[in-house]
Amino acid sequence: MNPDLNKLQPYPFEKLAALKAAVSAPDHKNHIALSIGEPKHLPPAFVLQTLQDNLDKLANYPATKGIPELRQAIADWLTQRFQLRNETLNPEQHVLPVNGTREALFAFVQAIVDREKPAPLVLCPNPFYQIYEGAALLAGAEPHFLNCTADNNYLPDFDQISADTWQRCQLLFICTPGNPTGAVMNSELLQKLIRLADEHDFIIASDECYSELYFDENNPPPGLLQACSDMGRDDYRRCVVFHSLSKRSNLPGLRSGFVAGDSEVISQFLRYRTYHGCAMALPSQIASIAAWKDEAHVRQNRQAYQEKFSAVLDILGNKLDVRKPDAGFYLWPNVQGCDKDFAQKLFAEQHITVLPGQFLARDSRGINPGSGHVRMALVAPLAECIEAAERIVEFVST
After folding, report:
1. Domains of the chain: which residue ranges?
2. What's the CATH class of domain 59-294?
3. 3-42+297-397: CATH homologous superfamily?
4. What residue spans of 201-295 are helical by DSSP H?
5. Confidence of residue 85 (pLDDT cuts 50, 70, 90)
6. DSSP 8-state assignment for residue 11
7. Is the Cβ–Cβ distance between 129 and 109 less than 8 Å?
8. Taking CA 201 as the corner, what is the angle to CA 196 and CA 205, rounded to the nearest 5 degrees?
9. Which of the residues 43, 217, 260, 312 has an alpha carbon 20 to 30 A from that of 166?
10. Torsion angle of alpha carbons 202, 208, 214, 220, nearest 10°?
11. Do 283 and 109 meet the contact criterion of CB atoms below 8 Å apart?
């Protein structure tokens, strides 16, 4: 077996299951899960109908590159959403559909890391999506964690990274809006990272899966390709973005997303994926076209999350140290104590599941930046989110 498998840590939800197994929850209270970032809003009916209408195409092998119509729909969406200059994003060269971004994020690292270079590093935020770490380890690289704390508005302090670390860096993961903090990187910071990538010759992989869940319709979060365009960098050199229909369109089970950016990187990643055997089924591709072409359901989705954030934060008030995030659907409260104890006792007393923040982070430079926080995903229906907030207030008030 690959010895690097032994470096993988248990997934956060394995740790959470063990934590909950040590206590019993009250049977008279219904369980409310705020731990998993799985959207619970209804998928758009027209997408499901499109999927159903094309099930006969399961009789055909799909191409790894995806059908031209899907790549064009993705390129059109990116161009409009991120204000890219017209026709600079070529669907033949810059876009690659993938079976959800989790699979693509992992595979991308395997294709990028050059094992022949000494001590390769993959830099990533801390807390982080655990795929970043596992992918780095199995690619033969060392993950290097960049702490995201309240002192820096939950963004990495890139000025604290040494020149040697940048020189060893082959891949920088960023997540904007962030999971779990919801912090958004502005265009100025993104452009700074692009200049650092040029200087030290590394790739930037921007995980933007939460980019469509924001609160101000007139001020959507910027993206990495948008920062490139703002610089007049129409080749998107060294920059790659990951997007998905899971959160945007409430279609996590469709497993549909895309990777876009630097044409040379996309070309080599396509080469890798041709051997990987991961083409998206044709019915899913056609349904994805319908989803990417429609914004009305996305606006309705944002409105539903806005209602939940408004209601929950109004109830929590000053009972919990929590703030509205820049974007996304998570709350990241400071529980003023041990996050594991908070999560375990909350489950035992109120039958509510939240995720301890330390499970989403690693010890780095003397701290675990997730410690003392819990992640709450406001994915349940509005009534359940309100009930959960009321129970949490009862819990912290006793």
Report:
1. 3-42+297-397, 59-294
2. alpha beta
3. Aspartate Aminotransferase, domain 1 (3.90.1150.10)
4. 224-230, 245-248, 263-276, 282-292
5. confident
6. P
7. no
8. 75
9. 260
10. 60
11. no
